[in-house]
């Protein structure tokens, strides 16, 4: 069984889709959901699914190193084989990433390498893109830069607001992440 930890910062809709997919003959199971925000709605959803949760609030630490040291300890205690970042909104230092490199995935709401960073939907609309999407990639020290494992594309409509586009992309995220994750863990097995 491939032990999987999921890191969130918000509502956790991607976390829920990942956890729901890990049933039956799926080689992985969720063993921990960690949030850097105590008020993340995803924590309640994880508890309702019977998944252990932990909070490592970045505001409780003097700097990123101290936060990441605690985050690393919290993860080690659950002994995960793989980590999925799912709406986790803290940029991780290279030193942290290197400890989990090759077994940490992230989902990013754009067609990387386009629109790394924040506000991806607004930037795609402002640039006049006719297509947008989502990417699942391996996490490397450079932000939103690791090897791409999968992408899904959606149209950008002339009437779209960033929220309209975000909702359309989120639907694509919910299908893409479980599929790419399963493919990834099956090749680990
Ligand atoms: C998603 O759009 C994800 O791509 C981005 O943050 C959003 C999180 O959504 N990084 P949720 O918390 O999984 O619902």
Automatic annotation (TrEMBL):
Pfam families listed in its UniProt record: Formyl_trans_N (PF00551)
Tell me the Gene3D superfamilies matching this sequence: Formyl transferase, N-terminal domain (3.40.50.170)
Q: Which GO terms describe its molecular function?
A: phosphoribosylglycinamide formyltransferase activity
InterPro entries referenced in this protein's UniProt entry, alphabetically: Formyl_transf_N (IPR002376), Formyl_transf_N_sf (IPR036477), GART (IPR004607)
**Active site: residue positions:** 108 (proton donor)
Q: Where is this site: Raises pKa of active site His?
A: 144
Q: What does the record list as GO biological process? A: 'de novo' IMP biosynthetic process
Which residues participate in (6R)-10-formyltetrahydrofolate binding?
A: 64, 106
**Known role:** Catalyzes the transfer of a formyl group from 10-formyltetrahydrofolate to 5-phospho-ribosyl-glycinamide (GAR), producing 5-phospho-ribosyl-N-formylglycinamide (FGAR) and tetrahydrofolate.
Which NCBIfam families does the record cross-reference, listed alphabetically?
Answer: PurN
Query: What's the protein name?
Result: Phosphoribosylglycinamide formyltransferase
Species classification:
Bacteria, Pseudomonadati, Pseudomonadota, Alphaproteobacteria, Rhodobacterales
